């Protein structure tokens, strides 16, 4: 695969995802309190029937037989009551309490009357006011499949079942290398030098896609030796190394020679997408014999972000054991030009309904103003254009549309 044969954008996403899925690490066991944002490595199964015992859903009376009933005790949540021994008896019961054996009905406190003789009368409602064992789940039933994103609701389900820990996929470790002698790391641009905007922003995107960021290094000098040293150092701790700039074949672009020196193999080498050309994803032998990944992002800021959403996001989804979600569809809020044989990712903002995406301004590959005002990208497939009102795929940025970390 060479730079003269760019890979179709959708195929590139699939190749990146499959590479990550094949390399996904093993499971690790962590406490529930630390599981938010992780991915289940095995199905979550019920450890018991849910509820585990008949449970009152009201405050009132658990009764046996026909009215009137003589109170013989009280049962609160957390207690284990004795069975009701004879018809005509009842116990006061609290919401969440275990229903005693032999109870034939529950009477809400507001539907009951206690007479002068202390006996209780009332009518049960049509729908029983208790929860039966197994009503929510049965012992061993799969509640959530492996690959489920863990959020507070999932943690709550696990806790309800009695789990104290969860088996989750390991968090991919990422490192960022910023290439370019021309970059400033402070102050305004000038005198032929530009301010680095990728070093500050890429780690945030990586975290939103589920990676931990182990290091940010740069600017790395524009020499092959410096590139090799920086990549080797990053590979010591990272599963994924992202680089910015150097993806062309110019006089100071040393990424391709460095990859050749490291024995890397390309998974994707250039993608048929605009903006974002050229980008790459390679498999690099690690110092411990286990393969790592290197994603080469273009130096232009918006192009770099498009490389992230195209190659890095699917790769990290695979490494985390997640599914690659299908793209939602939206209506184009305005005409969007095509890019010939290339996919066009057009920065767009969603309306309040989330159903219409309108292209934003300031979208040059070196610009970030449009990105800061967008919710994602309208996807215009090769050989097509979009007219206002047309339905098109939409690739959301990870902080929008309920995307989980």
Automatic annotation (TrEMBL):
Keywords: Magnesium, Metal-binding, Molybdenum, Molybdenum cofactor biosynthesis, Transferase. InterPro entries: MoaB/Mog-like_dom_sf (IPR036425), MoaB/Mog_dom (IPR001453), MoeA-like (IPR038987), MoeA_C_domain_IV (IPR005111), MoeA_C_domain_IV_sf (IPR036688), MoeA_linker/N (IPR005110), MoeA_linker/N_sf (IPR036135). Gene3D superfamilies: MoaB/Mog-like domain (3.40.980.10), MoeA, C-terminal, domain IV (2.40.340.10), Molybdopterin biosynthesis moea protein, domain 2 (3.90.105.10), Molybdopterin biosynthesis moea protein, domain 3 (2.170.190.11). Pfam families: MoCF_biosynth, MoeA_C, MoeA_N. Its cofactor is Mg(2+). The keyword Metal-binding applies. Pathway: Cofactor biosynthesis; molybdopterin biosynthesis. It comes from the Bacteria. Its EC number is 2.10.1.1. The keyword Transferase applies. Residues 175-318 form the MoaB/Mog domain. It catalyses: adenylyl-molybdopterin + molybdate = Mo-molybdopterin + AMP + H(+). Belongs to the MoeA family. Catalyzes the insertion of molybdate into adenylated molybdopterin with the concomitant release of AMP. This is Molybdopterin molybdenumtransferase. It comes from Actinoplanes sandaracinus.
